[in-house]
Amino acid sequence: MAALAGVAERPYPPATLPGPNRAPIRPMESEPPTPPTGASAAGERRPLAVLAVTLGALWLLAGALFKLFLGTPNDLPPIVREFPLELGLTYNGAITIELVIAALALLVPRRGWIGLGLVFLVFDAILVRMLDAPSCGCFGSKVSLPPAVMLGIDSGLLVAMLAARPWRLAPRRIPTLVLAPTLAAVAVLPWLLDRQVTTLAEPGIAHSTEDSGAGERWLELDVESWVGKSLDETPLADFIDLDSLIPDGIWVLYRTTCDHCAAHLAHLAQTEVGERMVTLVRLEEKTDNEANRVVHLMPEGGFVQHAELPDSLTYVITTPGELIVENGIIVSAKEAASDQ
Predict the structure, then answer these.
(1) Which residues, 6+ apart, have CB-to-CB distance to 45 below 8 Å?
(2) pLDDT for 133-149, tens place per residue?
(3) Which of 106, 174, 182, 265 could serve as a FRET partner for 226 with CA atoms 20 to 30 Å apart?
(4) What would the pLDDT profile of 92-123 be if each residue is shown by its tens digit?
(5) How many CB atoms lie within 10 A of CB 44?
(6) How many other CB atoms are found less than 10 A from the CB of residue 261?
(7) How many Å apart are CA 136 and CA 61, to the nearest integer?
(8) Is the model's pLDDT at 1 over the cut of 80?
(9) pTM for the full predicted model
(10) Is 38 left (phi over 0), alpha (psi -120 to 50) or beta?
(11) Contact predicate 226/330, CB 8 Å
(12) Which H or E run contains 190?
């Protein structure tokens, strides 16, 4: 036993490799920890991705909030207003989609950028079809932006976001019990506001223009659908004494705060010299005043007649609207009339 104990206590020399070098075999040392890889590490190195997604989301949110609290269906591009849905549903639905996508992108950039990118692609597709229009209609009659400018902004935000590769961001863990109610509250918000869209297909429906307390009332003036109808069959008959006007010539629906209306009426002031009747129909707004008036020059003379629609309604049309009338029948009509 003593001999065995001596053997156990005797230290063994390090093992060596066979051969002339006889290098000792060292015990395996633990390797240094592998640096983190994947989304977690990438997220730490991509503040530009967060910035790009945030800027895109804030731009989308700004448009949605403008429409929600200050806008009307005029804030929808004309091509969107043509969707086969009731105008109020289209308007509130568009706001809901924008609010939810913007909120998701702000809260969870790594997932929310997908919806944001799709929205910008849809916007670009719509704007490309509107490049000839004087205004994209994205912010209604209060803010006029050429489609090319809006296309550049949306496309720039989209390219910047994709270049920053937000799909490599680190996951941002927000409990579902927090995220889901937040998105639900955002989605419900547009539907809580008491707003009414009135579309008149028959004359005599809206003779009363007093505030009924039912919220803001919008009247859609879809002038292009009036072609082939008489003036008596349009909503104009509800607010204008048509018997006092000569039902011929060119009829222009304008706002005094509309830059494109100012340019169009100034053009007509130079080109209309009395060869036909000119009827100027002003769409009054409650915010109209001399400080924000931009329409000053317009046709004048015995061949010009005037009419007004009251400010008790908000009129949904991209002004100026232009009608060509022959013997009381509308033979052509268009929104956003220009002199090109």
Answers:
(1) none
(2) 766 766 655 566 788 99
(3) 265
(4) 999 999 999 999 999 999 999 999 999 999 99
(5) 11
(6) 25
(7) 18
(8) no
(9) 0.67
(10) left
(11) yes
(12) helix 176-192
